[in-house]
Structure formats: C-alpha cells, structure tokens
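HUMAN: Now follow token order:
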Amino acid sequence: MDIDDLLLLLTIMDSEPAFKSTRKLIDDKFTSILDEIYNIIEFKDKEHLVEKAKYIMKRDNFDYVSVLDDDYPELLRKIPDYPIGLFVKGNRKLLNKKHVSIVGTRKPTYDGKKICDMVAKHLKDEDITIVSGLAFGIDITAHAAAMKYSIPTISVLPSSVNRPVPRTNIKVAKEILNSGGLLVSEKPPGYEVQNHSYVQRNRIISGMSDRTLIVEAAIRSGSLTTAKYALEQSRFVYAVPGSITNPVAEGTNLLIKQGAIPVTCGEDFYHIDVQKVDKMDEKFKDNSIVQYLEKNGATELEEIFSEVEMDFSDLQVSLMELELEGVIVRSSNKIYLN
C-alpha cells in the first residue's frame, strides 16, 4: 500500500488518535513514515476499504487530495487539526486560490441577504473564491451571490461530496459545480452525518480562508464556532453589527465586542485587512510575541511567558500595547492575533 492509499485509508477510518500521530509523522518528515504508521494502527484486512472508496470516486466523479498533495490548500495545512485528506468534486484548481468565507444564521433577515449580495459585489473584481457551507440561510445566499457576480465558490460539507447535506440544497450544489465551483469534505463516501460533523466542517471553512465574515448570527449560532476557529487559527474575523433588538444580531454584536472587525459597508470587507496587515508588518514584525503567535496561533499567557524571553512585567506591558493597537485580542484565557 503506497502513502496516498494509506492516507486515504486513515481518512476513511476517521480515527482521531491516528490522525494526531500521523500529523506528527508528516510534520517531522520521517522517512520511515509507512512503517511508523503501520505500528500505530492495525491495517490488516482493511485494504478493501480503499478499493471500495476508489470505485465510488470513479463512479461518482470525485477525487481525493491528501495533505501531501500539491493541490492541498496551503492555509488549511497550517491549522493544528488539519484534515489528513479532502474529498473534492468539481474544479480542484480552486483549492489554492485566495479564499474568504461568508457564513451566518440559517434564518436570515432581508437585510442579511442584501448584505451578502453587497459584499459579493465588492469582491467581484478580486481574484478570490467565496467559501461557505451549503446550509440554509446565509450560506446558500453567499453561494448564490458569488455565482451571480461570477465569483468562484467552494462549499465545505459535513457529509460526503457525492451525497451533499442538506439534501434539499442538492440543486444549489449542482449549480455550484456547473458554475465551475467545488464541493469539499473530509468525510468519505458512505459517511453518516453526526451532530459533531458540522462543527468539524466549520474548522475547514475558516482554515481555508484568510478572512471570515459572519453576516448574521444568534448568540448560539453554529457560525460562531466558525468565528472561534478563525480566531484560534489567527485569521481575520469580520462581523456585521445589527440592532440590539434583533436576535440574529446578538452573535455578531458579541463578536465585535470581542474584537471582530465591524463591516458597515461592502468596502469594509474589501479593504480593512490590508491596512491592518501593513500596520502590523511595519511596527510589530520583529516583536517576539507577534512572531510566536504567528507560528503557534491562539496561546495561553503562561505558555507565551515560558517561551518568550521576557520578564513577566515587560510581557504584560508589551501585551497591553499590542492589544491597544488592535494587533492582538484576549478572549477567555487565550491570546491571538487580530
């Protein structure tokens, strides 16, 4: 069994302990990776799973892209819990384009839908791909807005790509493919969707994107988990503010209070991150805290103190300066780049 088949088998088996061990082997670039992985999991009599998956992929016209493949999304490879592989259907060239994700409530208002259209209109002249999750509401509105303005779009699914979920949105999935878009999932053929599948999917949506926009979200919206992942992955998070009496603005207003960049017009999502990157590059590019967070993502204060050569009092002063400048954000017990 070659390395690609082995990684395909690991993805099919969906074994988290194996994934963690395999990631370390890949990251450490062991030359004996095959032997090492075989020592982690018992693979006897499981080769038929690979052959079955290959048969279904050929039959239903979709592919498998392992983390070792050149087509694997470069940004996604940088997150701690990156998928070992992705199943893809459609234009796989989109995997390494510049991505922004747009997500939100399943029960959007008229204004929420209008905002999706407004943002897509301002992105149409960028060489960019819009990523979302094919869910009801803001997700399919974002996909539709992308296609309206001839912007490539990727749908990241909680299900296998040959059986998109929700089934009622299969028509939209076909439209995405017909427009030159892409369906993506870490779930193998035949996978039965579980409640946690949606949360796992959300880390891929944010992990593929350098910018994530939450258009509307209730306080318990699943899209807030996408924002949480994006922050932990040191990506830019944007949110649309709304009325304090609007239930689907509670989540976005909370994100803004926690440091998300407010979007009050289409231009905000188009321009503001470039200004922030330039600002950080010029003033803080040599800051040891910034360099550590760029490399490691969201980190607890104690870990930063143990790794950065700085007195605790000096560390606190430096963190305060970075926070006032909007370079970092503290949330709960972790610190991450804004």
